[in-house]
Amino acid sequence: MLKKLVIRNIALMDFAEVDFEKGLNVLSGETGAGKSVIIDSLNFVLGAKADKTLIRYGKEACSVQAVFEVPDIEALKEVLRSFDIEDDELIIARKFGADGRGEIKVNGFPFTAGMLKKITQYLVDIHGQSDHFYLLKESNQLELIDGYAQDSVTAVKAKLRAEFARLKEIREELEALGGDESARAMRLDILDYQIREISEAELVEGEEESLAQEREKLANAEKILQSLSVARDCLSGEGGVLDVLQTACRNVGALSRYGDVYAALGDRMESLQYELDDVERALGDEIDGMEFDDGALERVESRLELWKQLGKKYGFGYSEIMRFFENATEERDKLARFDELSESLVKEESAVKKRLYEGYLALQEIRKSAAQDFSAAVTEQLRSLGMNSARFAVWFEEIPPYSPDLHFVGENGLGRLEFQFSANKGEPLKPLSKIISGGEISRFMLAVKTQSAKMQRISTYVFDEIDAGISGTIAKVVAEKFADIAKDTQILAITHLPQIAAMADRSLLIVKTEEPSGKTVSTIRALDARGKVEEVARLMGGDPKNRLAAENAEALIGLADRYKS
């Protein structure tokens, strides 16, 4: 339930803080007073696309805050838990600036518009005058019937969705197996060549890196040999480091009898000598192992060139080349087994199509049953709204017999449906879009909403002048319908009808004034009992201050109170 709406710098409103109650909340005011601001503000805070024209002229940003009591809807609570929200109250705050930047927060946490929509779909259902056209589209009519059928349709559509997904996969797998026979043969030749080329290369992981190092060594062999020889000569040549170190060891070793410190120094120098001897031998081994084979560098270069060419074709590096090899091998094996695999897939495709067709038939029957109950309930509501001769039915296009070539369209079924209506006795049923008038569509919409309110899990309904085109006795009946719905669901109704204003559990008046500064401002205020009488009197066309007009308004309010009691 919507508890509070705080509006800042929206259209003509500088600031408004509006409290709402359970039951029927009626908003009224003169034409152009700014009643649409409430709808615009609600749409905005619920996640509608923001528009700079929403911002009050001269202001840098606008904002709306909506406070909701969390309804007892398990699906909503599950969504909230996924966002780590387990409060009994939801505070949705949205801000939008003239620079195009916006901000959304729910209970203080930053939210995206997509995240917000997951929550608000359970909170408010807004219906304006333009929403009458919603009922005229066949796709929306189908959605309405599916909503009425609820779980039974959902279960069948889930199975159809899975079957259709598998049908799509099968078709992709058949396509992947290859086209006609000549195309498959050509592809097999290409794959055989690629696989053979990689196999014959006998690639080894890490080889490319080792070859690169070897190439550098061979390309600089003379320089390396010269440097190694100089280093060895420095160690073992006449007067080299080892000769000098040997002399030093003898002299220090002779001092060992004069103290432990000299013995320790002698041991260290002896260890150093052993280490340098080992280095000298290693240098010698490396020098002896150097070969000036003119063909060695050429062979390394040739091998590296092979790696390069394979990399250009199949991916650079051992891992990528071998991944290509594995994929190519798998594809070749599938193509080689085309007849076997395609036969199996074709059989499965046929089975899936038959299951889809059976699902379409089952879905159609569920929809027909739901449509029969729905049309009967709506017709009853229409009669209570003064349309005693009205008839309403849902026409279904028959599904053609099964054929493998039948167009399988997914989880929504095959056959169309269409709402058909007749307002007058003796007139045949015709498509709703072609015959229904403005006043009739208002009542039809209300009849649908009255019925759908019993099945939809929405905590608040908003009606923006849905009562357009009706008056007199019918207006009274519409007001009673609002009261009936409001027993279980909160309603916000914007209206010009005194009958609906009289039925209000909470009355809110929207007023437009011109300030001395020249600025036009819209404000909202809650009406007390006297204010309600005056507003109903105004809507009845009388002078709110006239005693007779006030008495008529009081009488109308009294009738409304008796109906609600």
Question: How is this structure best described in words?
Answer:
The protein has 565 residues and is of the alpha/beta class. The protein has a domain at 185-336. 56% of the residues lie in helices and 16% in strands. It has 19 helices and 15 strands. It has helices spanning 35-45, 74-82, 113-120, 138-149, 151-176, 181-201, 207-219, 221-236, 241-253, 260-289, 294-314, 318-336, 338-384, 432-435, 438-452, 472-486, 498-502, 529-539, 547-564, and strands spanning 2-10, 13-19, 24-29, 61-69, 89-97, 102-106, 109-110, 124-127, 391-396, 417-422, 430-431, 460-464, 490-494, 506-514, 520-526. The strands form 3 sheets. Strands 2-1-4-5-6-7 form a 6-stranded antiparallel beta sheet, covered by helices on one side. Strands 8-12-13-3-14-15 form a 6-stranded mixed beta sheet. Strand 1 (2-10) and strand 2 form a beta hairpin. Helix 4 crosses helix 13 (338-384). The relative contact order is 0.13. The mean pLDDT is 86.
